[in-house]
Amino acid sequence: CDEWRERMLKRIEAERPALVVISSASQQVDPARWQAAAARTAQRLQAAGARQLWVRDTPAPGFNGPRCLARARWQGHADFAEICSFDRDKVMARTRPIYDAERSGVAQLPDVRWLDLTPEICPEQRCSLWRAGRPLYSDGNHIAASWAAQQSVRFAQMLEGWPLGPAAASPPLK
């Protein structure tokens, strides 16, 4: 990861995009270390002139969603979606220290916005892996591409009214 991240940061610095979307999987590391790393990354992106949209890690069921759904349907369970659901708050509690550290690491920087898709992914306490006649996840922790594409409207709403010229040209956004 370190090598890949460094290559991407150098590429961003060279290309100087107006916007960078950052998302990462919450790792089991010291939150203070995560906070410092997030701050360094955000400062580097800011120096490159990029606005930043940080996306919270998605709630991960901890098991392969499509496999569970397929097995439950194959076994004839009418309530297959309920069988393959998980407790949203329990899962999110495990990642909260990293999420809080990440937010703290970039809280004082201008041109940073946050997006938490948890309410769209899991609008209820029990998070279903089946939505609109299709699986919500592609495995144990990645959102299915078809569902992610539907979220483009939500991304557009987050960016609405946010000029995408050079970051230094406009006042800080909170």
Key terms:
174 residues, alpha/beta, three-stranded parallel β-sheet, two-stranded antiparallel sheet, disordered C terminus
Low-confidence stretches are 165-174
Rg value:
18 Å
What's the SSE pattern? Answer: HEHEHHEHEHEEEHH
- Beta-strand residue fraction: 5-15%
Strand numbers in spatial order across the main sheet: 1-2-4
Structural class: alpha/beta
Largest sheet, strands/sense/barrel: 3 strands, parallel
Describe what this molecule looks like in 3D.
The chain has 174 residues and is an alpha/beta fold. The chain has eight helices and seven strands. The protein has helices at 2-15, 31-47, 65-74, 80-83, 88-106, 118-121, 145-150, 152-159; strands spanning 19-23, 51-55, 85-87, 112-115, 126-128, 130-131, 134-135. A three-stranded parallel β-sheet has the order 1-2-4, covered by helices on one side. A two-stranded antiparallel ribbon has the order 3-5. Strands 6-7 form a two-stranded antiparallel sheet. α2 (31-47) crosses α5. The longest helix has 19 residues, at 88-106. The two termini are 29 Å apart.
Concise account of the structure shown:
The chain is of the alpha/beta class.
Please write out the topology.
Blueprint: H1 2-15, E1 19-23, H2 31-47, E2 51-55, H3 65-74, H4 80-83, E3 85-87, H5 88-106, E4 112-115, H6 118-121, E5 126-128, E6 130-131, E7 134-135, H7 145-150, H8 152-159
Parallel strand pairs: 1-2, 2-4
Antiparallel strand pairs: 3-5, 6-7
Helix pairs in contact: 2-5
